[in-house]
Amino acid sequence: MSVPAESQWQALAQAARTASRLAHCPYSRFPVGAAVLSGDGAIFAGCNVENASYGLTVCAERNAVSRAVAEGARSIDAVLVYTPTAAPVTPCGACRQVIAEFGNAARIRCICDGPGMLEFGLTDLLPSAFVRSESAL
Questions:
Q1: Which of these, 9, 48, 68, 137, has the minimum number of CB atoms within 10 Å of its CB?
Q2: Which residues are known catalytic residues?
């Protein structure tokens, strides 16, 4: 896992902002965009997709990870989350766990329309992630 260059963070931010405009969020009216940087440097974006059955709603982060996996990525170096808010918002617990499956050492950056930015290692946000054991393989 490598630490993303600032140019990669900027590309992730653009992809996440673009994805947020495609969100299907008629219930919350809270469009979220996320972008994943895979281990080979590819970027995959996703948006939140809400459902009338609220439990079936899928977050932007999980959609971005799923898209990366569907296109062959098996490791994640970074995730950028964009929300159209005054302060940045971090990924929910379910998203943190899904990111851990492919990037337990990933960097997470959260940006918004305001001046704030948050950046963490995934282990800061999810210190005791449930991850597969190499001995179980």
A1: 137
A2: 61
Name the E strands within 60-111.
Answer: 76-82, 107-111
CA distance readout (Å), 117 to 13, 68, 77, 81: 11, 24, 18, 10
Quick: pLDDT tens for 62-81: 999 999 999 999 999 999 99
Cα(20)–Cα(93) distance, integer angstroms? 20
Q: Which pairing describes strands 76-82 and 117-121: parallel, antiparallel, or unpaired?
A: unpaired
Q: How many domains does one find in the chain? A: 1
> Is residue 58 in some structural domain?
yes
- The larger pLDDT score, comparing residue 17 to residue 133, is at 17
Residue 137 has pLDDT above 80, yes or no: no
Largest CA distance in the chain: 45
pLDDT band at residue 35, thresholds of 50, 70 and 90?
very high
